[in-house]
Design brief:
Layout (H helix, E strand, L loop, with lengths): L3 H5 L7 H15 L8 H14 L2 H10 L3 E2 L6 E2 L18 H9 L15 E7 L1 H6 L1 E12 L14 E3 L8 E8 L2 E8 L8 E3 L11 E12 L8 E4 L15 E7 L6 E2 L5 E8 H6 L1 E7 L2 E7 L8 E4 L15 E8 L6 H16 L1
Parallel strand pairs: 3-11, 13-17
Antiparallel strand pairs: 1-2, 4-9, 5-8, 6-7, 10-11, 12-13, 14-15, 16-17
Helix pairs in contact: 2-3
């Protein structure tokens, strides 16, 4: 049997956030729509996540070990590891057995079976300037969308609805499962009508009765100012469309900020750059033009500035993502010492040296 923790690469005591992070990383890597994707591996990852991200399913899985199977609509156990030899203590009383086997062997009490759409992960690159100002982008995806002919019902327009021949209109069927206690009858959602009790006399030709079909879709997104490289934006309901009116999955966009040739960003949302000044400017002081994300600004260099000294231009850094305000622009000055000097320059520097020695 599969070990869901090993599949996601997390420890048994992993937090919900750690499980979600591991799932997103693996789902992005193995998504079948990507080059090098692996559909079987992707399904395995989703199966593990569906169990470990659900508190009740995870508790059952942790309690019953590898015998728990949380995937699919039917669920179930292939054995009973975890129960003591003394029997099934704690499940006595009216309705106890019914509830236990309802949980163990699936069936549920829902009258409809909804196959929700899968989440989608994708990547997007933005420039440093776009990170600072925020930007609107469009993402083009080839994915399952709700059929525009049948509206997701799966039936041809105007087609008559008939009683499902498999479940005779109940929406549920009974199956027999062999266990160590013998054969147990299990009630499950009808596969043909998916719990509706009705089927269409004619399927929709565009989606072949699935209610969804593949189509290229352009999705507008807004990337907020101040986002960090590696952060993820979620767009609810823009993943794969669910079948027969089931909810769509979500879209997760991993943002990557391209490096800037001059600017860097620190952890406090400051922008850092470097400016070169001459020896004379450092000694005597001056004003220089500094390039910022808002354009060029004038900055004062005081007399006696040292090499490597840092000056601050207030509130011209990166905006804070979850609050108002922004960081600063920090300018590190680099004093350039000339390698070649004229005779007159050498004389002046010699005079300066002599003056310093006398002072």
């Amino acid at each position: 049997m599969s070990d869901y923790y090993k599949i996601l690469g997390v420890e048994k005591g992993a937090s919900e956030e750690e499980i979600k992070k591991a799932y997103r990383k693996l789902a992005h890597k193995y998504h079948p729509d990507k080059e090098g994707g692996d559909e079987n591996k992707f399904k395995e990852i989703n199966e593990a996540y569906q169990v470990l991200s659900d508190k009740s399913k995870r508790a059952q899985y942790d309690q019953f070990g590898q015998t728990f199977n949380g995937a699919g609509g039917n669920g179930g156990f292939s054995g009973f590891e975890g129960f003591g030899q003394g029997g099934f203590g704690g499940f006595s009383g009216a309705g106890g057995w019914e509830d236990v086997f309802s949980d163990i062997f699936g069936g549920g009490r829902s009258s409809h079976h909804q196959e929700a759409g899968r989440d989608i992960q994708t990547d997007i690159e933005i420039t440093f300037a776009q990170m600072v100002s925020g930007v609107k982008k469009e993402i083009k995806l080839y994915k399952n969308v709700v059929c525009d002919v049948c509206g997701g019902s799966g039936g041809a327009p105007g087609a008559k609805e008939d009683t499902c021949p498999d479940c005779h209109g109940t929406g549920r069927i009974r199956k027999s499962i062999r266990t160590i206690l013998g054969t147990i009858a299990q009630e499950a959602v009808c596969d043909r009508c998916r719990g509706k009790g009705k089927v269409y006399a004619e399927k929709c030709r565009k989606c072949q009765g699935e209610g969804i079909h593949k189509e290229e879709k352009i999705i507008p997104i807004e990337i907020p100012a101040g986002i960090s490289s590696g952060q993820t934006i979620s767009v609810r309901g823009e993943g794969e469309a669910g079948k027969f009116g089931a909810p769509s999955g979500d879209l997760f966009i991993n943002v990557h900020v391209l490096r800037h040739e001059k600017f860097n960003r620190d952890e406090e949302n400051n922008i850092i750059s470097e400016e070169k000044i001459s020896f004379a400017q450092a000694v005597l002081g001056d004003k220089i033009d500094v390039e910022t994300v808002e354009g060029r600004v004038s900055m004062k260099i005081p007399a006696g500035t040292q090499n490597g000294e840092i000056f601050r231009i207030r509130h011209m850094g990166v905006p804070f993502l979850r609050s108002s305000g922004r960081g600063h622009h920090l300018v590190k000055v680099r004093v350039m010492v000339p390698k070649k000097l004229s005779r007159r320059e050498k004389e002046l520097i010699s005079e300066l040296r002599d003056l310093e020695a006398k002072s």
